[in-house]
Write a structure and sequence with these properties.
Blueprint lengths: L1 H8 L3 H14 L3 H9 L4 H10 L5 H7 L5 H12 L17
Helix pairs in contact: 1-2, 2-4, 3-5, 4-6
C-alpha cells in the first residue's frame, strides 16, 4: 500500500507510511475515524492520536482532541508511547579541581 500511495499520490515514503499506519489503526477506532471523515479532526492531529488510542479511549479522544493543537497532540502521544520516546538521561560528569 505504501508504494502505491507514494506513486499515485506523489508523496514521500514517510508520508505514505503514516497514512497507512493511521488507516490500519482507525479500523478499531470508529469515533476518531468519524471525526476525520467529518472534518472535525485533521490528519495531522489524528495520526499521532491513532498511534496511542485504544477502543476504550477512542470516544473521549475524538471529543477532546477537537480543542488541541497539533503540538499538544504530538506531546500527548510521545508521553503515552513510553520509554521508547523518553529522552535519555543527561550524561553526568565529575569536575575535579587541582
Amino acid at each position: 500500500m505504501t508504494a502505491w500511495l507514494t506513486e499515485r499520490c506523489a508523496v514521500s515514503g514517510a508520508t505514505a507510511r503514516v497514512w497507512t499506519q493511521t488507516a490500519i489503526k482507525l479500523e478499531s477506532l470508529p469515533r476518531l475515524a468519524d471525526a476525520l471523515a467529518e472534518g472535525t479532526l485533521s490528519l495531522d492531529v489524528l495520526s499521532p492520536l491513532a498511534q496511542v488510542a485504544t477502543p476504550a479511549t477512542d470516544k473521549d479522544l475524538a471529543t477532546e482532541a477537537t480543542h488541541w493543537s497539533v503540538k499538544q497532540v504530538r506531546e500527548l502521544a510521545a508521553s503515552r508511547k513510553g520509554s521508547s520516546m523518553r529522552r535519555r538521561p543527561a550524561i553526568s560528569s565529575t569536575v575535579r579541581c587541582v
